[in-house]
């Protein structure tokens, strides 16, 4: 039996997954008109209707959904086979990592990691998004979590559990000399990430029972909050790994003594990937690099 065009099948797989002709075109780097033509040709080739237009988007028909499930599995197999072939020819690593850690700890030492890999290529993607390992978006991810993830197809190993504490610039702290304990911190201009939740959790862990409504800017990324603290815009919550050098050089100071731990850094990769030399080497290297400062 003659198979349909692989290009048309690829367009159909992308349309079914994204639910959009335009999004599929952006992913495949072709125009929406070309995507539509591929879908029309595929439907004509098969003699069935796979896609129906609804509003501004598209939906799969019942036959289309059934066909798409099988096509999607086939493309997943192709992606995995290609990944294995590339890995055997040369060891490369695509690592997704939360931005702050990528900037402060990994970027300065990438040549060292490349040397350990034996000449392979390192792709470091700073992001808050999580990769889809089933699509080989990444070989491994480094993420900060309160609890280890539970996924039967993935294995997570803890890299570090750094202490978390409030920091500010020396100039800002000089303006608030009456700060003696964690309970005094809500008096200061606080800098948040995506919400006030992290500060609320930290204050409770530090023993503050009565927490007022917290105010302050939201900067979404931990490293942006730290940068804002360095230029005197307020107080940020930081962990020891991200501000080690800033504390040593006096750009930041720890405001009050505390012993609070909120989460850990984990290296996550598919179960079968942990038997590879590159992932085990990456884990050992990260444990060394992320060793908490004394």
List the helices and strands and how they pair.
Layout: H1 6-18, H2 21-28, H3 32-46, E1 51-54, E2 57-60, H4 62-89, E3 93-97, H5 99-106, H6 110-117, E4 122-126, E5 140-145, E6 154-160, E7 164-168, H7 170-175, H8 197-205, H9 222-230, E8 236-239, H10 240-248, E9 253-254, E10 264-270, H11 277-289
Parallel strand pairs: 3-4, 3-5
Antiparallel strand pairs: 1-2, 5-10, 6-10, 7-8, 7-9
Helix pairs in contact: 1-2, 1-3, 1-4, 2-3
InterPro entries: LysR-type_TF_proteobact-type (IPR058163), LysR_HTH_N (IPR000847), LysR_subst-bd (IPR005119), WH-like_DNA-bd_sf (IPR036388), WH_DNA-bd_sf (IPR036390)
Organism: Microvirga puerhi
Protein name: LysR family transcriptional regulator
- Count of distinct strands: 10
Give a quick account of the main beta sheet: strands, pairing sense, barrel closure: 5 strands, mixed
CATH class of the largest domain: Alpha Beta
Based on Cα principal axes, name the global outline: elongated
* Percent of residues in β-strands: 15-25%
Radius of gyration: 25 Å
Strand-pairing-aware structural class: alpha+beta
CATH topology of the largest domain: D-Maltodextrin-Binding Protein, domain 2
Roughly what is the average pLDDT, rounded to an integer?
87
Count of individual domains: 3
At CATH level 2, the architecture of the largest domain is 3-Layer(aba) Sandwich
User: What is the strand arrangement across the widest sheet?
Assistant: 4-3-5-10-6
- The succession of helices and strands, N to C, reads HHHEEHEHHEEEEHHHEHEEH
Total helix count? 11
Q: What share of residues is helical?
A: 40-55%
Poorly predicted regions are none
Distance between the termini: 67 Å
Give me the CATH superfamily of the largest domain.
Answer: Periplasmic binding protein-like II
Pfam family, one: HTH_1
Keywords: DNA-binding, Transcription, Transcription regulation
Organism: Microvirga puerhi
InterPro entries: LysR-type_TF_proteobact-type (IPR058163), LysR_HTH_N (IPR000847), LysR_subst-bd (IPR005119), WH-like_DNA-bd_sf (IPR036388), WH_DNA-bd_sf (IPR036390)
